[in-house]
Amino acid sequence: MNNQLNIDWPHFLANYWQKKPVILRQAFPHFCDPITPDELAGLALEQEIESRLVSNLDQKWQATYGPFTEQDFTQLGETNWSLLVQAVDHWHDQAATLVAPFRCFPQWLFDDLMISYAVPEGGVGPHIDQYDVFIIQGMGKRRWRVGDINPNYKQFCAHPALLHVEAFTPIIDQEMTAGDVLYIPPGFPHDGVCLETSLSYSVGFRSPTAQALVTGFADYLLEHDLGKVHYTDPNLTLPPDPLNVSPHEIERLKSMMIALINQPDYFNHWFGEYISQSMHSLNIESVEPPYHVDEVIATFKQGSQCHLVNSIRLIKVAETYYIHGEALDLPRPMIEKISHLHYFDQSAIAEFIDDKKVMNQFTHWLNRGYWYFVD
Ligand code: SIN
Ligand code: CO
């Protein structure tokens, strides 16, 4: 049985979301760790999975990036270190069930599930994140200190890979045990120190910067050779100071740029492609040799289930669905049937199963590996 989350979302959103941090005691009653420390260490051996080991013995902060070897783990002491593995929801089915209760949030904002294993005194040190995070305590115990938001905090590199923040006065200073959830909005300094060997699960959200959006949109225009509209001003008059760009001209220039963003065809399509890309590798295996549509229909008819790759991003912008950076060209009624399902069988697509054209389109995405069959 999967862990059940007990949060009053409307109350949480009105009082805490991007406003203030809070500990939600026993938000996961009877919490059961969905992964073992050994399994987590196993993921950190893999090339495509991002992982980090952070240690702080004698106040000397060190951080190394994976993939690790088994020997790296045998050399570790009994205190003062932690292992962090990113996007575990992409690779571990049972861990992925932990993000299910957060699927009611706009999915374009969701990022990943990071899991950390820490031994006593282990942690990543005091720092500030620029995104919202729900930290679910699993086995063990951790003491969390969270400070108030303040633009004047000084940040410094305790190690080239660790950006820390100066000492802060805590507004939360509490021990967390299995099933407690700490929500931290962007900008609030925090520090979680392990008291008893612990697993923590961070459900993280994205918050794109204006800089990333403008850059991403500009890249899209370049790639598609769009927006090559030249500046004109047929009502030009001679200015008193020819060196000056007049306010009226500045407005015209800005309008040119804004007009591009306001083109729904450009903006929506760019944003769909952009936001449906994952920031971490996914467990996608393309099918070799590719399926023929007849094989796909036969496999459904034999009763196989078709699963969507864990945490692949399937996002709808205006009337178009995007998956993993591309528009998903399937008939709308079919997408609507399957887009919210983690897996489905032929009964979900009964009205399309004998439509070769539709099934041929779906075969393309199966061959890409975005969905896969399980017998
Ligand atoms: C951790 O789990 O050690 C770090 C989580 C965080 O502070 O964001
Ligand atoms: Co953090």
TrEMBL record:
Domain JmjC: 88-222
Keyword Mitochondrion on entry: no
Key word Iron present: yes
Alphabetical list of InterPro entries matching this protein: JmjC_dom (IPR003347), NO66-like (IPR039994), ROXA-like_wH (IPR046799)
Designated name of the protein: Cupin domain-containing protein
Origin organism lineage: Bacteria, Pseudomonadati, Pseudomonadota, Gammaproteobacteria, Orbales
GO molecular function, one term: metal ion binding
The entry's keywords: Dioxygenase, Iron, Metal-binding, Oxidoreductase
Cofactor: Fe(2+)
